[in-house]
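Subject: sequence -> structure tokens, single chain

Hey, anyone have a minute? Need the predicted structure for the following. Not urgent.
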Amino acid sequence: MAKALKIIGGILLLLVVLFAAAIFMISRIDPNEYIPTIKEQVRDQLGAELELESIEWKFWPNFALDLQGIKLSTQAESHQQLLAVDNASVEVAVLPLLSKSVQVDHVSLKEPQIWFHQYADGTHNWQPLIDNAQASSKDENQAESETTPSEALNIAVDHVGITNGLVKVSGQTQAEISKFNLDIRNIQFTDPIPTMLSAHIKVTDPEPQEFDASFNSNININNDFSLIELNKMSVGIKGQEKEQTLTLNGNASINTVNTAIKTDLTLEPLNLDAWMKAIPVSEESNSSKKETAQSKAEPIELPKELIKGLNVEADLNLKDIIMNGASHHFKMEGKVQKGYVTMHNVKLEAYEGVAKGNLELNVNPTPAKLKVDLDVSNMGISDILKTWMDVQPISGTIKSEVDVETTGDTIEELIKGLTGMSGLTMENATLPKVNFNEIVWNKLQSKTGDLVTLLNQFPEVQKQLGTLKTPKVLRGTTELDKLLAQIQITPQTIQSQTINATLDGQPIEGQFSYGRLTEKLTLKTAVKLPFEKQELAELTWPLSCTGSLTGEFSCGVDTSALKPLLKELAKNEVKNKIKEELAPHEEKAREELKEVEDKAKAKIEEKLGTSLKGLFGK
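Reply:
Had a minute. Here:
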């Protein structure tokens, strides 16, 4: 036993001596002598200028190289500075070097500063360095393929860390990314690579924003970098207010050969109300709103070439989207391939209802083609109009089947070109600011106006206008039951030739039209008022309403449509009056006629009896 311990102790002593000898030999090498060579390599391969103050050996607690005063810049005319690091260290395990393996325990950058500038043409100050790096990589790969392969040198990096970095962004966007921390472990490309990132982002232009961001994922990268997988990914964003938070969880993969992207993502929560509060509205933007609305906005073109180049499959689930205090949910399966965009199994739970459907966009032809079919069930129409148009002309729940298509190469062209049909059903529809019965009654009570002028032409009808059996129909709103309509959509109008509903237990019909170019709204219908006199109670009073969804909306009696109805009513009144006046004479005439008929009958019977007696000789 003692002999074995001596052997083990001897081996350990030998290893210590060898390790000390290796350190002694390494320490005799001055790494600063290689600084000119390193600078030259950076200049030749990356086209960048490197400043490096010193390189020092570090032997405790780990074997490492400490780099001091690192600065990287380009030879561009402006915004040359790219990177500045006061201190960086690379820790390397010594023993694996004996087997031609490089085990990098830790690469550390403390408080680095990075400058990113985007030029007016869309390029950025890092572009020359990236382009040169890609070109150098291709040249090296080609050179390696033309030379005799040698024994590979195994390189493994265990940990890369950036602590308290600062990124300054300039150009079209002005921002500062501070508290930038990055932690990457087990960079061997054989196992998942745990990656964590966090930063504080402050945007000053174009719109001031400030928030914290984080990223966590297990990243898989195959040997030839053709496939990158982000598993158990979590992206978090937190604003300055309590409810300004969102989290994106899921998985994603990128095929770098054919640029195919697959995602399965869930986002929750997204409080749009809270985030919109963070967007300030300047006095300048307020004063220019009117001018902007009056001026012709630049059309938003479809990114057709970009869409043609995409190869994406995505399952997206947006949970708990808060808008105007209400919670909504959105889910879909999407695919973008060869210029075709499809969104299937779309499901939106919003406004206390559900919308399901599909969308297909083909950007290959000119103009592009879009087709949408949607099934809406039990959605609150008042909330929809309030959210998107800030108006509430009607309330109730809707059911609708929408089938539309359009063509265009801009968003505006797609919207303007919409054509198709939509079925609309509302069990209960309320017009909160309109009472059809009250409109007619007020016009009848008025001393002036077209209706009064018209009624003066029919004094017999005018005399009979009295009180109503049920005056309560004049109070409150217009409440329609079982409203049904077939709506036709064209580039010029949205209209329904026939609207059927029930008002106060009576069937009612109407027509609706909205000019998409003029933004003029027209509604025509007719109502019956419960007059004491039956003939008036059966009379339909035509109504015509005009206006806009966002502005004034007025209704009145359509006298041109009412006039022939009054003529018919007056004609019937005259007939009834004549009938009443003739009724006594008609009765007397019927009695006299009957008396004449009876006398004639008796005389005929008498003559017939005399003739029969003569015939039989009696």
